[in-house]
Design brief:
alpha+beta, Protocatechuate 4,5-dioxygenase, Chain B, Glycoprotein, Type 4 Pilin, Dna Ligase, domain 1, 3 domains, nine-stranded mixed beta sheet, four-stranded antiparallel beta sheet, 15 helices, 20 strands, 36% helix
Length: 474
């Protein structure tokens, strides 16, 4: 392929400011607002992201949540999956261009990686003028602000069948070495007459209904199954424009060998919230994909968290005062919101176990509060009394939850699980199976019993099963 020397982005001056100083000022504001919205804690070892692609004034602050992670990691290359809103022939296409130009300068295309993809025969090249689309080019100023020296591998994804998607993912996966991330560009629900999508009225509940619809789609993407994600779009009719890039990202992540991958929602907002007009609203989500090790606490973090829980329990046992005792110092990892459970044992028997599946509070704040709840609020046991002796304490820090399309994905001794069967819910931590030497079948049977359901509930279409992993701290 003979690539054009440089491509001047046509979105400069319309989708974002055309003057360098004004664009830089807007980007700085977006990144600052993102930190205020989502906090300073950034998860390491990202393998990929989904980012929105509207005008920067609309979706830029949500997208910045992903780019801040890249900035902290020092990402050196981004494989950027977009699509042409004008349509393109089925397949995966690479534009014939050597670099992109925005008001902030040039972004280099990794020609070596492009040639590697084209050599496999699955990826094909096309004139940039035929492909040019904001799904890719709106990302460039954000990329320049976060990691100005990073190169891109631009890929336009059109309609793909399962076999073609698998072949494309197999070619992409070797590029995802340390320092490289995979990014899919997509907005979420497009609501309104202009989009021919008004499944419910724009009344007082529309904000919540849009969020619920988007959360259904996000949950499906979090399954890491492209088939389940696409089936969810069909069943809900959700108007997610970049579904092909997202499906290819999910397929590619399955080829990685960096441990189990979990999705984390980094930020979410609708244009209706920004403009106040929900009659025409587009939803924006920033999703991150991380190996489980990214959520594990280091030794120092574990020690600080365990000491906080023990001091909180000891204070209650001595004084009877319900007072959470924070860690002696805060580390970045302890500032991350996460699900957490605390289990108390006495003489080898469970004395109390309470937790939060997910928490908006940081770990340092949630853990001592949950410790007191385990001692005083587990309805299965009488409350712990001041002066009680011989209590042993265990903390379980949870990964994000992952929806299972079917039970084949459950891994006994590794996964805990949450069962939601027609409003009945039950949760079991992964160590429960290990402690009782259970098989996967026995674990799932016990989970159904805890939810107050029968094992047959797993066969019901409305039943949902989520899995997670837990770092146990004793």
């Amino acid at each position: 392929m003979e690539a054009a020397a440089a491509h001047e982005s046509p979105y400069s001056g319309s989708w974002y400011p055309g003057q360098p100083s004004a664009l830089q000022e807007l980007l700085d504001e977006l990144f600052q607002n993102s930190a205020q919205r989502t906090g300073s804690c950034l998860i390491p070892h990202a393998a990929g992201f989904v980012v929105p692609h509207a005008g920067l004034a609309y979706s830029g602050v949500v997208a910045a949540a992903a780019y801040r992670h890249m900035e902290a990691a020092g990402t050196r290359r981004v494989v950027l999956l977009g699509f042409s809103h004008r349509g393109a022939a089925p397949g995966v296409w690479i534009p014939e261009v050597e670099r992109f130009r925005t008001p902030l300068g040039e972004v280099a295309v990794d020609r070596e990686a492009v040639c590697q993809l084209l050599a496999g025969g699955v990826f094909r090249s096309m004139r940039e003028s035929a492909l040019c689309d904001h799904s890719i080019e709106i990302q460039l100023p954000l990329l320049q602000r976060a990691v100005p020296d990073a190169a891109v591998v631009p890929v336009y994804v059109s309609r793909l069948g399962p076999e073609a998607r698998t072949e494309a993912a197999r070619c992409l996966a070797p590029l995802l070495e340390p320092g490289t991330v995979l990014m899919a560009s997509s907005d979420l629900t497009h609501y309104g007459r202009a989009f021919s999508y008004e499944p419910f009225p724009a009344d007082r509940s529309i904000s919540q209904r849009l969020r619920e619809l988007d959360e259904t789609v996000i949950e499906a993407a979090g399954s890491l199954s492209p088939e389940f994600f696409l089936e969810t779009l069909r069943s809900t009719s959700a108007t997610v424009c970049g579904y092909e890039p997202i499906a290819l990202l999910l397929e590619t992540l399955a080829w990685l060998h960096d441990g189990e991958i979990f999705q984390e929602t980094l930020d979410y907002q609708t244009s209706g919230e920004i403009t106040g007009d929900f009659h025409h609203s587009v939803s924006y989500g920033a999703l991150g994909y991380f190996p489980y090790r990214a959520f594990e606490l280091g030794e120092e973090d574990q020690g600080l968290l365990l000491e906080s829980a023990r001091r909180t329990l000891d204070h209650y046992l001595r004084t009877g005062e319900r007072k959470p005792i924070p860690p002696e110092r805060l580390t970045p990892a302890l500032k991350r919101p996460a699900g957490v459970f605390v289990s108390l044992h006495s003489g080898g028997n469970l004395r109390g176990c309470v937790g939060r599946r997910a928490s908006r509070e940081p770990l340092w704040e949630a853990t001592p509060e949950v410790t007191l709840s385990a001692a005083l609020e587990d309805s299965r046991f009488r409350p712990v009394r001041p002066g009680e002796k011989g209590l042993e304490l265990e903390i379980s820090v949870l990964s994000p939850f992952k929806r299972l399309p079917n039970l084949d994905g459950f891994r006994v001794n590794e996964h805990g699980a949450l069962l939601d069967a027609g409003g009945y819910q039950g949760l079991l931590l992964p160590q429960v199976a290990t402690e009782r030497n259970w098989t996967a079948q026995q674990f799932l049977e016990a989970l159904a019993r805890k939810a107050g359901a029968s094992y047959a509930a797993y066969s019901e279409p409305s039943t949902k099963v989520y899995v997670f992993r837990a770092q146990v701290i004793r």
